[in-house]
Amino acid sequence: MSELSVNSYFDNQVKSIALENAEGVSTVGVMAVGEYEFGTSQREYMTVVSGLLTVKLPGSEDWVEIKKGETFIVEANQSFGVKVSEQTAYHCRYE
Amino acid sequence: MSELSVNSYFDNQVKSIALENAEGVSTVGVMAVGEYEFGTSQREYMTVVSGLLTVKLPGSEDWVEIKKGETFIVEANQSFGVKVSEQTAYHCRYE
């Protein structure tokens, strides 16, 4: 069994741990306060576990608040903006 | 602002990332397949984010399945058993 892998992004302002189970491949992670532009290589189902994300989805000009327990979906090969005003934990499932 | 801290337990079979926000102090983490005995120093609210935990709470002889989205609570200075049959992500809030 392989070891749990931890990844860091944006100069260690975002860190995640990967997992694979019956639900598929996913990560849980934490974002520090800041503003980020993410790119997708697969469809992503992103759920806020604790905290708050303010998100600008591909093709949208509007920033939308995603609260604890809420999920947004981004298709593959897109980019999306995220503003983080407090440390926020997320779960990201890949398809 | 301090860097996001990653902790490892049980010979790297459990890893977590700490955060603090309006909800308080918490961690998100992943448990590899295995069986673990955890001890608490504060009250813990443990929620399954992805996967499944089978838990024996303090003072109980029964193993109970905690599914995705479900939460169990353990008081401070207790120990509890966890069986993990697939990689499982959790959120643990401390009080």
Topology:
The structure is a homodimer of 95-residue chains.
Chain A: E1 6-9, E2 14-21, E3 24-31, E4 34-39, E5 44-50, E6 52-56, E7 64-67, E8 71-74, E9 79-84, E10 88-94
Antiparallel strand pairs in A: 1-2, 2-3, 3-10, 4-9, 5-8, 5-10, 6-7, 6-9
Summary keywords:
homodimer, 95 residues, mainly beta, Jelly Rolls, six-stranded antiparallel sheet, four-stranded antiparallel sheet, 0% helix
Word description of this protein:
2 copies of one chain form a homodimer. Chain A has no helices and 10 strands. Chain A has one domain (6-94): Jelly Rolls. Chain A is 0% helix and 62% strand. In chain A, the strands form 2 sheets. Chain A has a 6-stranded antiparallel β-sheet, with no helix packed on it. A 4-stranded antiparallel β-sheet of chain A has the order 4-9-6-7, with no helix packed on it. In chain A, a hairpin with a 2-residue loop joins strand 2 (14-21) and strand 3 (24-31). The model of chain A has no long low-confidence stretch (mean pLDDT 96). Chain A has 95 residues and is mainly beta. Chain A binds chain B through residues 1, 3-4, 6, 12-23, 26, 28-30, 32-33, 47, 49-52, 68, 86-89, 91, 93, and chain B through 1, 3-4, 6, 12-23, 26, 28-30, 32-33, 47, 49-52, 68, 86-89, 91, 93.
